[in-house]
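Q: My collaborator sent me two sequences in one message, no labels, and asked for predicted structures for both. Can we handle them in order? The first one she listed is below.
A: Yes, handling them in the order given. First sequence, followed by its structure tokens:
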Amino acid sequence: MSLLKNWLRAGVAVVAVMASMLLPVPAQAAPATDSNIQISAENVVKVTSANHNEVMEVSRTKLVVLDFGATWCPPCRQLKPVIEKLAAQYGGRFLLGEVDADISRDLMSRYRIQYLPTLVPVRNAAELPGSRMIGFRGEAALRAWIDAQLAKG
């Protein structure tokens, strides 16, 4: 009888784990702006192929940093909170565009992304040449990189 109870407990545990993985998590609404760009945090926007052109229009007036990453990527998970914090601290001097590598494969191909995370600075709808940052080397290196990109104009 105890073997049957153990099997039932294991079955209930498996069902609970599977349900937690399969059931959708309710999304928190992002504040709407006057365009189709949905800003999820201060100076941070999720970039997809649907709103990419609008984000490129923003790059005509300020630096846009495209952050190509994925939820399964450990360095991406380390980078995300740090770069989001810096986007808020810099007070609008640059817009952080987060690109999910698993969702926006067309953007990954367009920018020829080979490694995650990769930061691509964009100004006037064009990538700043020779300015990519690949990987995460800590907050000080990231801050220095952002400052260098802002200094380019």
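Q: And the one she listed second?
A: Here it is, processed independently of the first:
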Amino acid sequence: MSDPTPAPPLTAPDLWETVDRLHGWLESHSRHPARETLLLRMLKLSEEVGEVAQAVVGATGQNPRKGTTHTWDDVESELCDVVITALVALRTLTPAPERALDARLRAVAARSTSPSPPSPQSPGAAPVPAPAPAPAESVRPEVQEIQERPGT
């Protein structure tokens, strides 16, 4: 039986300070060139998302051979790992991840919570401008190299 007394609130660490610390720790242990490190951090997201899927399958008992192997708390934990991994990957991509996330969050919120724009076939419909590219100084050299590769 669980204790009905709620746990005392925890002092949350500063999100971006923690992301910077994790990024620094990973950088200090990196054994690969910067470009490869960046790509591997992006691939790590797929691994973490796969762990979410595994936890959902386990929490719902969808594998008859294994039965129920996870809880919804496990799913929650795995989702948090996805978020953390994504934030560290974003920090690897840009030294200003706060700005990138803020801009993207605002754009998604605006398009998701505002009335539907007129359809392109509607008279007077204005084209939606593409987001401005990140300033060159905010992009790491290895990222710029990936972006400038011919055929990509």
